[in-house]
Write a structure and sequence with these properties.
By secondary structure, the chain is α/β, with parallel strands linked by helices. It has one domain: Amidase signature (AS) enzymes, CATH 3.90.1300.10. Helices cover 39% and strands 15% of the residues. The protein has 15 helices and 13 strands. The strands form 2 sheets. Strands 1-3-2-6-8-7-12-13-11-9-10 form an 11-stranded mixed β-sheet, with helices on both faces. A hairpin with a 2-residue loop joins strand 4 and strand 5. Helix 9 crosses helix 11. It is globular, with a radius of gyration of 21 Å. The two termini are 18 Å apart. It binds glutamine (GLN). Glutamine binds next to loops. The site of glutamine has 13 residues, from loops.
Amino acid sequence: MIKELHQKLVSKEITSEELTKQYLKRIKERNSELNSFLSVDEKGALAKARKVDKKIADKKEIGLLEGIPYAVKDNFCIKDGITTAGSKILEKYKAPYDNFVVGQLKKAGAVLLGKTNLDEFAMGTSTENSAFGVVKNPIDTDRVAGGSSGGSAVAVADDQAVWSLGSDTGGSIRCPASFCGIVGIKPTYGRVSRSGLIAMASSYDQIGPFTKSVEDAAIVLDAICQKDPRDNTTVAHNTNFLNNLKPEIEGKKIGVLREFLGDDVDEKVKKIIEEKIKWAKKNGAEVVDIEVPGIKHSLAVYYLMVSSEVSSNMARFDGVKYGTTSESKNILDTYLNSREKGLGAEVKRRIILGTYALSAGYKDAYYKKAQQVRDLIKQNFRKVFEEVDLILTPTMTGPAFKIGEKNSNPLDLYLVDIFTVPVNVAMLPAISIKAGFVEEGSKKLPIGMQLVGPWWQEQSILNTALAFEKN
Ligand code: GLN
């Protein structure tokens, strides 16, 4: 899609201004129902688009993303405008600088339409935890869009943006991609700079794209994967995903985690995944059953470590440096009131859990222990990847669930992450692509499948995903 639009811009079949206006119009028509955007920068987007049009008129070459409208999750700091992270405490927050990736995209001439809705500080699986209301699934508006990057997924699925960015700490790109029937990729930890991304859990967070096709994902990844001196975990991007993109299935060795196709998974989802496995075999892939010892502890490790890192990262929102100051008698009151009024229930729950897990006397028993188990899980993945090229799993246990369906017990929602979280625990790259549909009444709800690769092997993931996509 991006390539075709680029071609249309270059051949002057359409101007970037016209294209941008189409998307702005779509947002206007749809946002009151779906609630995918928290802010739209009409003026900025059009100004950028006109600049690109001028460049084209002047016969200058333009890049693939130049003049193409996109959206970012509202936990990416941007200098012009507000960055809320889906929280009341940052309702009026103006960041002093641009997120690194957004800055790079600005230079590349991409047209930023606006910022999308999310679970508060990215904590959630359904975008029901946003202080600014739930995001609805465009395929069935009684259902969630997934989370935490629900707004970014809906923006793409509903044609309110050509592509978008989200962040994935435990599945927040792959889950909404699966629920909305689009492509979402979580790169290897360290591929994309986190500087200027409001931190949830620093050793888990990773930025990645939502797109309509695997090819588009490769294009966006090439633009956003870069070394950034402000994030020491990043590496140089010395390959080109798009140039090396080709369908690959023959001769690939694909591992299937049988324990991920057990009783927790919807029968219809299992059927779809089994069909994909059959197709892969028929087309020359070698498919083997694998086990990753310890993987069942991933959720426990994840929620323990993530809550701990959350409690630490959230300390800065105290009503003084960050956040709205409430009227208070003294400094302690400022802290307490600001956090009490500014933060939602899920964020508070994780701060409390994490503070407990990190407290004196418990830190070694919980955080340190979880870190050790994380290392073990990583080692066990490493061993598996000596045997197979990729691992195939469902992305989620079922299709998008109904709004409110999983709200009575927070654990119900945590359990939904069982297939996505191990990837972040092990810092691996993974993609979710549409694998099929299940019918619910008159609606066809998309089901996603996940391909997980070894560290830094995004190319292999993209190439095999492309083969499945072409099927
Ligand atoms: N659902 C997971 C959580 O609530 C993932 C969140 C994320 O990836 N940002 O922690």
